[in-house]
Specification:
Structural class: alpha+beta
Shape: globular
Bound molecules: fe (ii) ion
Helix content: 10-25%
Order of helices and strands: HHHHEEEEEEEEHHEEE
Number of helices: 6
Oligomer: single chain
Radius of gyration: 18 Å
Largest sheet: 5 strands, mixed
């Protein structure tokens, strides 16, 4: 959510123009194709300066991790959990949409029976979270969390509401592009991936230091869903498609912030 994502009061005082200039300077110095993951230490994203890892990752024994990692069974996930518009007695406000896609490995093979979890703001850009107190309305008919398992073709599918953009305190008048947070558990807990999906044509893209911390333009574009008219449902919902690749050179980017808050 980003409400607490402030490195200091000084950083929050930066203007959008100052942050945009920093983003553009970094982009201008970037050699295309040199990086595919977000920068851990990305000064325009102020809090990344203080909370990025400074040491190499600790190597974990996958089998040992499995002894204390969370476990779930396929029966624990109900099909109804994939419909975020049907969790309350009434209809949530906003643009109803279907978000679907395939989870693939680096060789293009479907990752089957994969737990996919999503969380998101409501249509007004507000999360149900005590730290999100910005003056946009909560929706009594929308919680903003869902999960499903991929099918035999690696396909996940959610029905939800298009989230709104929201302000955060990285700098003065900072706004996040609309996005949906995704978490995927691999076949092992150590493969867990957290990332964000964006919507095509968002005017906030060039202004957002989190989106721009992925400095490679092609890699950044892989975080943006595609509007797909074949996914829409007549008189019911629009539709977006977004595939997720867990390994290999075209893998979807891991989110820098392990708190996954913004
Ligand atoms: Fe968010």
């Amino acid at each position: 959510m980003g409400v607490t994502a402030v490195a200091s009061s000084d950083s929050a005082a930066s203007s959008q123009a100052e942050v945009t200039a920093e983003i553009e300077a970094i982009a201008g110095a970037y050699t295309e194709g040199a990086e595919s993951q977000p920068r851990l230490d990305y000064p325009p994203y102020r809090s990344s300066l203080l909370r990025h890892p400074t040491k190499a990752p600790q190597q974990a024994d996958p089998e040992g991790v499995e002894l204390w990692a969370p476990v779930f069974g396929q029966l624990d996930v109900d099909d109804a959990e994939a419909d975020l518009t049907a969790q309350h007695d009434g209809e949530p406000q906003g643009e109803r949409m279907v978000v679907t896609g395939r989870v693939l490995d680096g060789d293009g093979r479907p990752v089957r029976r994969q737990l996919v979890e999503v969380w998101q703001a409501n249509a007004a850009g507000r999360y149900i979270h005590e730290r999100d107190q910005h003056p946009a309305p909560l929706d009594p008919h929308f919680t903003g969390m869902g999960r499903c398992l991929t099918d035999d073709d690696g396909v996940y599918r959610f029905t939800t509401i298009k989230p709104g953009p929201y302000p955060w305190r990285n700098h003065r008048n900072a706004w996040r592009p609309a996005h949906i947070h995704f978490s995927l558990f691999g076949t092992e807990f150590t493969q867990r991936m957290i990332t964000q999906m964006y919507f095509p044509g968002d005017p906030l893209f060039p202004l957002d230091p989190i989106f721009q911390s992925v400095v490679d333009p092609a890699a950044r574009s892989r975080l943006v869903a595609t509007y797909d008219h074949d996914v829409t449902q007549p008189e019911w919902s629009t539709g977006y498609r977004w595939d997720i690749v867990l390994t290999g050179p075209h893998r979807t980017l891991l989110e820098v912030d392990t708190e996954a808050a913004e």
